[in-house]
Each structure stands twice: as structure tokens, then as C-alpha cells.
Amino acid sequence: MDGSRSRKPRRPLEPTVAAIVREQTGAAWSRARALCTEGRVTVDGQRCLDPALRVSPGAVVVVDERASKLRTGALAESAIVFFDRDVVVVDKPVGMLSIPYEPGDKDTLVDCTRTLLRRMGRRGFHPELGVVHRLDKDTSGLMVFTRTLDAKRTLAERFRAHDIERVYHAIAHGTVAAQRIETHLVMDRGDGLRGSYGHFRRPRGGIPPEAKRSVTHVRPIAALAGATLVECRLETGRQHQIRIHLSELGHPLVGERVYIRDYAGRKIESMRPMLHARVLGFVHPRTAQRVSFEREAPDDFQAMIEALRPSG
Questions:
Q1: What is the bridge-based pairing of β-strands 140-146 and 275-283?
Q2: pTM
Q3: Which of 2, 105, 136, 163 is catalytic?
Q4: Whole-angstrom distance, CA of residue 228 vs CA of residue 178
């Protein structure tokens, strides 16, 4: 024996429901997933709401785009991580808008949280929830809403001052090294995409006044097949900051759809960008005590890690 370790061949993963829906309909990933969550897909005659469910060979998947949309939006009580008379911390599911962006947007996280608090009998407080930050629709993890105007003013100021602990887990293409990334983000880096000033085109003159200083601390957690599980700690919190910084580093998120046009490596398919807001900490607006909350990533994120975990 030469002492070398033999690697077991990787067993091909069974396709997800969304992958089969996409193959049948030609729809984009987002639409394929929506068809599932809207109740328009059955597997062996049973309605399937989980687009990440893996389908065994021989299963019959039927898509009926004209079927009545299932009313969703219910938030499990377990999604409420913490609440008191000032704030409520919620674990946002994948695929749910944080807040309405267009007229008619319903079943957003803020709506569902308000409904859940009422159902739990938490009356006697201001009926509205204050929004002090957001997560993308396809990002899972921790968000905080405020329940009083004083709490909203205080936390909004702390977000502006970057005095909030925000730690994300992400699965990024390639081998990612530990580093501190500092750039200035602009609405259009030169090709129509939000990005870092001077990254896409050679900078001319000084940093424009509208550019926002953005700092992300990246630390690898585990090497995966063709990817890395990383921790991203935000020093600032700009829109799409982690997605942009990792992409411009040459390591776009697995599942990235927008900030990946420059990536020439092998792309790993995923129904959403693999990003989870794992830790959220702040000074409580009334008690002045620092509080911190942590939630594990959801099943689809964990399944991606397992699918990419090196064998042997």
C-alpha cells in the first residue's frame, strides 16, 4: 500500500422539486420555487410546498400554473426569537419579503410578525412595527423590529452608527482566505450594477461623495467541494454588501444571480444565494444592556453544506 487515501465516488444527488419544475416549465429559479410555495406543484399526487425537497426516481411531479394560489404567510411561533415591549427579534424564512416594496405586496415579515404577536395575545402595545433594517427576500436569518417610536429612533441611530453586531454565514465559490474588505459602494459601478467604486472601471479623480464606505471581515469556516463556508462580519451594513464584496473578490455566493457575471469558474447551482444572518446583537434601546441572538441556518443551507462536503 502506498498510504494514499482513496476517495469514494460522489453519489449524484437526487434533483429538487424546483429543479424538476424548472426543467418542465423553463421558468427561472425564483418562479420555479414560487410555484411550489404557492401550492401549484404536486409530487405523487400530494401538494409539495418545499422547493428544496429532493425527489426520488420514479416520482411523478405535476405543475399546474393555473391552480389557485395557496394563501401562505403564516409565521411559526418558533420564529419569534425574543420580544418585549420595545423590540421583537424574528428569524426570517427564505422567500419572504422583509417589508412591502410595491403596492399589493402581502404576507411580508413585518405583516406576519404583527399578526403572530396578536395571535399570541400580546396586546396593549403600539400596533405598528418599526423597520430599522432589512434582509433580501432570499436571505434567511435574524431581523429586529421596534415596537415603540423611542425604540425605533434609538436603534435606527445605532444602525447608522454601525453599532450593531451582524454576523452572516455564507457559502461562496472557490477557496476563500481570511481578509478584511474595504471599498466604497456606488449605485452604478459602470456597468449598471451596484458595486465598488474603481472595481469595474479605473477610478477618475477622488471618491464620489455619494459612495458609501463598506467594510466586511471574512473568515473561512470549512473547505467544501468547489466552495467555502465563510463567516462574514459586517463593520458597516450596506445594501448587498456581502454579495458584492465576495463577488468582487472572485468568490460569488453559491446561488448568486446578479453579481456573478465576471465569474469564470464552475458555477454551483442553487435556488437562492446561500446567505444566512446568523447573529444579531445590539444595545437594548430601553435597558441599555447589550443583547445578542443566534440562529442556525435553515435546512436548504445545511443541505448545501452536506452536498458539498468533501468525501473520503
A1: parallel
A2: 0.78
A3: 136
A4: 11
